[in-house]
Amino acid sequence: MSTEQYLPLVALVALPILGGLLVSLLPKGNPTLPKQVALVISLLTLALGVVVGLAFDPSAADRFQLGASWDWIPAWGVSFALGVDGISLVLILMTAILVPVCILGGWADADATAGSPRGYFAWILVLEGLVLGVFAATDVFLFYVLFEAMLIPMYFLIGRYGGAQRQYAAVKFFLYSLAGGLLMLAALIGLWVVSGDQLGAGTFDYAALVGLDIPVETQKWLFLGFFIAFAIKAPLWPLHTWLPDAASEAPPSSSVLLVGVLDKVGTFGMLRLCLPLFPDASKYFTPVIIVLSIVGIVYGALLAIGQTDLKRLIAYTSISHFGFIALGIFAMTSQGQSGATLYMVNHGFSIAALFLIVGFMATRRGSRMVADFGGVQKVAPVLAGAFLVAGLSSLALPGLSSFVSEFLVLAGTFTRYPVAAVVATLGIVLAALYILLMYQRTMTGPVRPGVEGMPDLRGREVLAIAPVLAIILALGFFPQVALDIINPSVDQTMTAVGSTDPAPVVAEGK
Amino acid sequence: MNPTNYLVLSAILFSIGAAGVLVRRNAIVVFMCVELMLNASNLAFVTFARTNGTLDGQVVAFFVMVVAAAEVVVGLAIIVTIFRTRNSASVDEPNLLRL
Amino acid sequence: MAVITTALSIATEGAPNPGEVVAASGTFTLTALLIAIPLASAALLLLLGRRADRWGHLLGTLAAAASAVLGVVLLVAMMGQPEDARTIGQSLWTWIDVGSFTADVALQLDPLSISFVLLITIVGTLIHVYSIGYMAHDPDRRRFFAYLNLFIAAMLLLVLADNYLLLYVGWEGVGLASYLLIGFWYRKPSAATAAKKAFVVNRVGDVGLSLAIMIMFATMGTFTFSGVNEAIGSVDPDTTTWLGLALLLAACGKSAQFPLQSWLLDAMEGPTPVSALIHAATMVTAGVYLIVRSNAIFDLTETAQLAVVVVGTITLLMGAIIGTAKDDIKKGLAGSTMSQIGYMVLAAGLGPAGYVFAIFHLLTHGMFKAGLFLGAGSVMHGMNDDVNMRHYGALRAVMTITWATFGLGFLAIIGIPPFAGFWSKDEIIKVAFAVHPVAGVAALLGAGVTAFYMTRMMAMTFHGKARWEPDVHPHESPAVMTVPMMVLALGSVFGGLVLLFVGNIEEWLAPVVGFEKAEPGIPVPLLIGLTMAVVVVGAVIGWRQYAMREVPRMAPTQVSWATRAARADLYGDAVNEAVFMRPGQYLTRTLVWTDNKVIDGAVNGTAAGIGGLSARSRRWQSGYVRSYALSMLLGAVVIGAVLALVRFA
């Protein structure tokens, strides 16, 4: 850790949290003021994110850069340490971009609910700060604390501002996550004890922990503790059932943050903690996880086809996509892991567009059911067009960003597990089915009663969706911008795991 | 001095107190029985202090007395308040602990 | 015939010898503009929305025309290059680079791709012009032209990409454009369904392309055309076979070949210019392009080649049979398209002897089939968009130009010399007889069936008695529609001659795809005579039945099982429904139930169990102070007893 403290990163984490406090203290009575203040704060955060991004040097030898560290609980070796590598940087940027989009897109999400807009936007900002903190934490204890703390704002966003079943969904989400968190806490303590045995004094410093040489049996238990927590968060099959409830009951902008951002912490954790800390256990469990991922890919897609509720449908597509991400991570190839990281970013954007547009539709129509729509393209062509682009991104159409990541994951998997890759590839057919069926049923055909008067996207909504779609398109043709940042960190992860890309068969033969 | 007698006395007193707590309904009586149990234990403490020749038991006895005094202050106040509002000092009646 | 044999003997090089890839310079740096112009136009038209309604169709046509002009310029420039310097590469930017996985956005212009470029842009431009008239009354004409431009851009990307991954972008890009255009009249549920079906079936094929690229990456570490051509020799034969089969799957999806043929007939829901451009002339032939482009792979695997031949043969017969039973003029033509692409695929499976002719037939077919579709569109235009040929008849008098252009296309497709189709189809039959005689016989039969259904179509539409609906007043289409038809009719007449004798197509393509002369087991003149005889027999039967006799206005219902099967597209959809859709729906429903009841049920069951346990233990809390005191006492006694036991026992 460099002695110089890089403060903009700290500010990046602190600003939204403090901003959230500020928003919560705003005077009552003016419902627009909190939205405006929250938007400004989130934009400032984005600006800070850009500053951090520009300061980051992908070609530097150090994995973690722009670090800042203070002692927190010295007796336990806990410090308040932040720093970014390529993987966390792209996720931080994605979060910083999505939050203003969500605030703009969710401008009216809190208006017709029991809670106040103040509270809604305050919680969103606090959530942003905590998530940014998780991505930037280089102390595992700090990671854990923020990982658990994230639940609180999300709980309130769902439980207070959600749909009819919001209480059920919020409690389910909370309990699931808490159960995972408990396992992680146990594993964390175990890890600390091991580090105490090996280093003389227990520590939670990431770099020091990666250097440990943990016996394989111990690794397996610790790995499971962390992995199950992340698998619940991500979510992997069969720990997924909280997601459709939570994502469909939450207001649209919160669904975006939940599925697009919060859940990424799960897959990020696998890549950041599980693999480098427990390389042997990771390899030991790889076959199981690959199978779970593939089951998730196909299962999520099939269930998405069978859904009648638009938001649940999108939630199930995410389960399929998280399967791809996990597959890429555990394929243990640089293509797989870089692809998975890029996938996390791309999925964030496409899911944001999908949830927000479905939210707009639901607000206009007063229903989320597929059957209540039909012929929307006639009355709201811009909305339909945006929905189609978002959908195509979700089905990984080449030329859009998700294709690059999905193909990298598949190719990276194929070099090591061809059968798994072949089965996963079938997922692209199912993806075409669930997206196009949804599009056909809602947007085409004769105009349904109840849809006739549906207004097209308005200025604010266009402003929220347009940048997301622009990024989806841009990253489709210029993904290297992101990959250049991601690749070095993935290489370092691969080194930490002790894994190398399989060489092409032809080259081996020679 | 034979400590056994004192301890037997202490045990008898404690048992009487415990029985009283369990069987009596009047809060005041229950309360007095609790005091009886406390003092029975005090007696045991003092006895042990004496036999062991250390002051520890005595110190604890003083502690117990202080706690008992504090308890009386709070407990009696509660009982009086309950009596005022419900016209009864029976411990069976205010089962409001149960939601 | 001697002329052909001399033409053949000129180019008898075996394996392709494309020479090194030359970096683009001078004129060739404009290659990227070919794609960029229509793409920019499409983006502009889509983003501007209604504001561009007044001039959108003009911009769209102009963009296509600009690409066409550029294509001609590039062709001239390429002809000025020496033969081994005609493969020109232009690398634009690094697209994806992760570990050893490298894909550039890079274009490759060579004789094969420039042939496609010209077909796409010139036929594309003609169809743009035609659409100005055809879509004149559609309020969404601008959107139509935006999609057409998008298609042109994607198709050009497909044929210009220098690696399989970028080809994939064009490949799905044309799929998207096709989806958008089939579903252009999205308010018709049938159109929306057909569009979705086309995309999904294409996706099944795309799985093949995905897998092929993965196999290439895993075995050779590269998926550029040049890299694969170089490394494929050292790949083990089994892998090569799998690679070939994966590519064949991709080709089947895009080119509507058996068993992925079912989408093409439904795709006729799109506006007719779309059927002409995408579902006849260009996009559906992309599968042939893919196989020919991958000639280095197929040359090494006889199994995959055989599979290609089988698929091509089955499809050419299937398509032709379906074509005989359709009363819908567009579906009849669609069956014919399937069948003709079957010929191309068959030729592509015949190895170096066939590649050139696959492309040759592809080019001539692009001209005459586009012409036929535009003619069909013109007829529909005059008949209030009625597609049922049983409501046509005797249109020759009122639509003379359409009749003439359609007639020339008709002569070309059934293979009457010297029209375009004769040269290309005959070569395919010949090579098929030389390499796989069984396929040759099938191709010969197919030619007869083709003559039958095309004659039927011609007769039912333009000859016989008028069977028009009461309020229909057929009229010739405006010049903006007939001129493109006339240009394509010229192509139908001279296309074959020009490509073969002026363009010298064998020599032109040989450096890229290789060329090897194959002699059939029976004398060539005899074979040609035989083909002619079969064609004439087919045509005469068709003419007798549909021009000389009365055609009933209602399709007869008392028909043989063969007719019923052909009307039902040989049960392709029925099989799909029984094998995939029904079980799929059942599976989805079961899984939804499982997820709610079993997986979520386990979770909620745990929660309910804990809840029940709490409710039960709550009864312990009576609220009576004395019972609490008793339990405390009991607890103390137990603890004391345990302590005593531990101490003394």
Written description of the protein model:
The complex is a heterotrimer of chains A (510), B (99) and C (649). Chain A is mainly α. Helix content of chain A is 73%, strand content 3%. In chain A, a hairpin with a 4-residue loop joins β1 and β2. In chain A, α2 runs antiparallel to α3 and α10 crosses α14. The longest helix of chain A has 34 residues, at 166-199. The radius of gyration of chain A is 22 Å and the shape is globular. The relative contact order of chain A is 0.10. In chain B, α1 (3-23) packs antiparallel against α2 (27-52) and α2 packs antiparallel against α3. A 3-stranded mixed β-sheet of chain C has the order 1-2-3. In chain C, a hairpin with a 2-residue loop joins β2 (88-98) and β3. In chain C, α3 runs antiparallel to α4 (111-134) and α11 (272-281) runs antiparallel to α16 (355-382). Chain C is globular and about 115 Å long. Chains A and C meet through α7, α13, α15, α17 and α18 of A and β2, α6, α7 and α24 of C.
